[in-house]
Each structure stands twice: as C-alpha cells, then as structure tokens.
Specification:
It is built from 14 helices and 9 strands. By secondary structure, the protein is an alpha/beta fold. It folds into 2 domains: 160 residues, P-loop containing nucleotide triphosphate hydrolases (Rossmann fold), CATH 3.40.50.300; 82 residues. It has a 5-stranded parallel beta sheet, sandwiched between helices. The chain has a two-stranded antiparallel sheet with strand order 3-4. α1 crosses α3 and α10 crosses α12. It is elongated. The structure holds adenosine-5'-triphosphate and magnesium ion (MG). The site of adenosine-5'-triphosphate (ATP) has 19 residues, from α3, α10 and α12.
C-alpha cells in the first residue's frame, strides 16, 4: 500500500500532527501526488515551506526521506551511484595475496556499488515508497533535468556494467524550485504543480507557534503582523515564513513577550537581511511595523 490516508483532510491532519500546516490546496496537491503516483513540483518564494513539505510527507508516511540537493554542474552519475574504489582495491589486493586476478566482471558488481540518492530511492524496498526530494532543481543544468525527467517517467536506470534497475516501489518524488530559471515544459507537464503562496498573517502566526512553541502567544501574533507590514514596504528581500520564525525565536531568546518598536530595533537584522532594506524600514519608522 502506497499510503494510509483516506482523503485530503486526513493527510492534512497528519501533516499538522508533525508540525506542518498545509492549506487545502497544498494538501490536495500532495494527496494527488500520492494517489496518482505522479511527481510534484513545488515552487514558491524562499522559506515558504517547500523543502519542509517533502520532509513532513516522509514523516507522515513513516518512510525515509532521500534528498538530492541540486547544484550547477551536478551530473547524472553523481546523483545516481559511484563505485566503491577503496573496496575494489582491497578486493584486488586480497585476490593477489591468494595468487588470483580479478576481472572487471568481478569488480563491477552490486558488492562494490554505492547508492547515491536517485538510485537509493529507486531501490528502496518498501513496503511504502521512499520520498525522493529533488531540492532546488532549478540550480541544476538542462542535461540533468532531461535525465531526471526520464528517470521519473521510467522509474528505472541503466548502469552500464550491471544493466537496468527498475524500481519495485517507485518513490514519491517531490521537486522544489525557487524559479531562478524556468524549468522545461516537458518536465512541468509530467509533474503535478503547486505554487506555495506566502500565507496570510494568521497562518504565519500559527506556523510560528508550531516552530517556536516556547514563545508567548502574543509575540507570535505580533511577529506575524510585523512581517506582514514589512512585506508592504517593497523591500529587496521581503521577509517570509522562515524570517518570521527566526524573528520570533530571537525575540523570545531576549525575553520579549511582545513586539514593540524598541524590541524591533534591536532584532531587525534577524528579519531584514539587506542593508538597503534595513534603511528602508528605519525610514518608514519602526512604529509603523509593530502592531499597535
Ligand atoms: N506551512 C508550514 N508549516 C510549518 N512550518 C513551516 C511551514 N512553512 C514553512 N515552515 C518553516 O519555515 C522554515 C523554512 O521552510 P523551508 O526550508 O521548507 O522553505 P523553502 O521553501 O524550502 O525555502 P528555500 O527556498 O529557501 O529552500 C522551516 O523552518 C519550516 O519548518
Ligand atoms: Mg528549501
């Protein structure tokens, strides 16, 4: 059985149980990814919960999260497998000490194969599928994207020395992108898609309470409202959910139980990360940022 959820509400409640708050749209998208066995592409501003969505999905499925962090120049072979050279050398030495010689066929076997994330996800034995998180896929290059697309469509890869390996329990694939470039139409077409919106202040307050449970209730609400006002200032980097969490954690660490202009002044660098943005906030006045 791929998953145990009756419906979208059931999955959303389970995610809530591990501290991840998904609205109905995101809950539906994730549910469909499970039911239709299709990869899902999550896009959205930084810090809006894309990576965490995949982690939380693995947590509620009680299955391993296998993460491939993408970067420029990432090659298919790096993402798939490597040969265990030290072990092969040891094998050769041992054989030599017995007066034997090992051939390629002896050395390029399963015993010497080290799974990298993509192969590990395909070979996960189940019973439930692993969650394969292909994080920040927009950072990888075109060729890698094409390779990934094929792998996700076939759930199989060919290792020249060993032949084709096909998944018995295909992974739940979650791709994330910050949209530093547009992904191929063909990849998008194969994936379910969801744009995670920056949540409104009430939802941000709920998320902050989950992530900084020690913080005072009022503080969480004030921080969420403060972030909402900061976002109206058209900053170079408007603060998101992640910044709201950092801000609340910092304020709580300083013993604050609510947000006033003085506390905001002392902690503004935990929420606004560019000097020009900081100047813009100070110019607008901290009184306009904190709840009255
Ligand atoms: N809906 C949510 N429920 C609970 N926590 C959330 C939610 N959204 C974001 N968070 C928290 O916000 C922080 C940032 O989330 P995450 O790292 O998943 O963002 P991201 O979209 O992957 O960002 P980036 O694009 O920078 O990688 C994490 O601590 C995460 O737990
Ligand atoms: Mg991320």
């Amino acid at each position: 059985m791929r998953h145990q959820f009756r419906d979208v509400a059931d999955l959303t409640a389970a995610l809530d149980g591990v501290g991840y708050l998904a609205d109905e749209e995101l809950g539906t998208a994730l549910y469909l990814a499970l039911v239709l066995q299709q990869p899902i592409l999550l896009e959205g501003e930084p810090g809006v919960g894309k990576t965490e969505a995949a982690k939380s999905l693995a947590a509620v499925l009680d299955t391993p999260l296998i993460r491939l962090q993408c970067y420029e120049g990432l090659s298919a072979s790096e993402a798939l497998y490597e040969w265990n050279y030290p072990r092969q050398l040891l094998g050769i030495r041992l054989a030599e000490s017995r007066g034997e010689r090992l051939s390629d066929a002896d050395l390029f076997t399963e015993d010497y194969l080290l799974d990298r994330p993509l192969l590990a996800a395909l070979r996960h034995p189940g019973p439930r599928p692993a969650v394969l998180l292909v994080d920040e896929v927009d950072r990888a290059d075109d060729e890698f994207e094409a390779f990934l697309m094929e792998l996700l469509a076939e759930h199989a890869v060919t290792i020249p020395e060993l032949g084709t390996r096909k998944a018995e329990v295909p992974p739940v694939a979650v791709l994330t992108s910050n949209r530093t470039r547009d992904l191929h139409e063909a990849l998008k077409r194969r994936c379910l898609y969801h744009w995670i919106q920056h949540p409104g202040p009430e939802r941000v307050a709920q998320i902050v309470r989950r992530r900084v449970p020690q913080a005072a209730d009022d503080l969480c609400r004030h921080v969420a409202e403060g972030v909402d006002r900061l976002r109206e200032l058209s900053l170079r980097k408007p603060p998101g959910v992640a910044e709201a969490i950092s801000w609340a954690a910092a304020l709580h660490a300083l013993g604050e139980t609510e947000l006033d202009a003085d506390a905001a002044r002392r902690t503004i660098s935990t929420v606004v990360k560019y000097d020009e943005d900081r100047a813009a906030v100070l110019e607008a006045g901290l009184d306009s940022v904190v709840p009255r």
